[in-house]
Amino acid sequence: MILAVLAAASLTSVSTASAQSVYDDRHSQMLLVSPEGDILDYVPEVGEVMISRDRMGRTVLIDRRGNLVATEIPAESYYPPRQRGGNRGLPGVYDPYAEPAPRGWDDDVTTASIPDIDPRDSLPLEGMPQDMPYGGPDLPAPADTAPARTVTPEIPVKSNLSRLEITALQVFLDREGISPGVIDGKMGQNVNKAIVAWEQMTGETLDPNNADDILERLRLSGGLAIKSYTITAGDAAGPFVASIPDDYAHKAQLPAMSYTSTAEMLAERFHMDEGYLRELNPGVDFSIPGTTIKVVEPGPYKKGNVTRIVANKGLKQVFAYGEDGGLIAAYPASIGSADTPSPSGTVTIERIALNPGYTYNPKINFQQGNNTQILQIPPGPNGPVGTVWLALSKPTYGIHGTPEPSKIGRTQSHGCIRLTNWDATELAKMVKPGVTVEFVE
């Protein structure tokens, strides 16, 4: 077995020719598969990787930064019988960052911790931008730029739609770039706010009780809300971790803040509440490649050039506007709290980091448990700031993702703007450093 060779103490290197001959043999018992679902065309040298195991007991290779290099899987799961003589491999794990970075992005920040500054640097700790806020004077009061129509929990938009019809409504709004948050087949304030934002963007009226109209709009926007999807070997390979501990010291010991299961990964990929994904697929084992499941079809990311962002604290919603002043997208958000309020006034986006790590500093951050030391928490979708960090010009503040998408718009944050990972990713692809962010009440 390949990893038995890797683990041998006497191993110093494996030739490329030898590696190629191993991987080209379809009759090999085990294969090393990359996170993208491709067979590795080399064997990493000893010292370059650590050998570990995931939640399912499979052997995995982790590099020094905590990134998954490969997962060892049985050859028959990569080359199922129906594939013999046909397509060489199966598509791998969906990567929302696989597209080339837009011009002006700094590739050096794509795996940077938050902040970029190493705690061993000579700068004082007080100068290190962290995720959470510390004291400082507020910026000037903002102008009144709130949307004309306000939806609050006291003024809900009623709907007589069925669960699947509400799913269709959520999917339609998501495809339009007006996010309803997690898609769960339930009406709520995130859906209500999205309806109002869509009307603001289009100038049209959307009746949440008119199922026929919603289904027709859905058809024109890309087809049915629910589709079939076959779980691939790459999906089942992960990377996964057994669980995400609450204690930050324990988080810092993980190789990566990865998903904990295929179901969690797929739910995020398709913008779904994990519980709803399981409801649509009762009794399904999501870890088995070749399994066909039902998922929603949210459609591609919204595209545009965002030049101005408004974070409405009262609505718990973020609005993204284009050069012509028109609304491009809107997202439910968790924005600040009474103890750690968000800024006021106008700031700018300073940098964009994808898949960032997180630096916990109790001298600047909130106190977490009994942790009194600086901790470096590795990147991953279950990290404290999710998969995206948009650093703001006010130190310690940013727009970022979250490990708990179902709580967005329903809870408060530690002063920053928290979006679902997919919404934060969509927004990150439409902005550049220098874009203004206005906080309004």
Automatic annotation (TrEMBL):
Residues 100-128 are annotated as: Disordered. Residues 1-19 form the signal peptide. Keywords: Cell shape, Cell wall biogenesis/degradation, Peptidoglycan synthesis, Signal, Transferase. It comes from the Bacteria. It holds the Pfam family YkuD. InterPro entries: LD-transpeptidase, LD_TPept_cat_dom, Transpep_catalytic_dom. The active site is at residues 400, 416. Residues 307-440 form the L,D-TPase catalytic domain. Pathway: Cell wall biogenesis; peptidoglycan biosynthesis. Belongs to the YkuD family. PANTHER family: BLR4375 PROTEIN (PTHR30582:SF30), L,D-TRANSPEPTIDASE (PTHR30582). This is L,D-transpeptidase. The lineage of its organism: Bacteria, Pseudomonadati, Pseudomonadota, Alphaproteobacteria, Hyphomicrobiales.
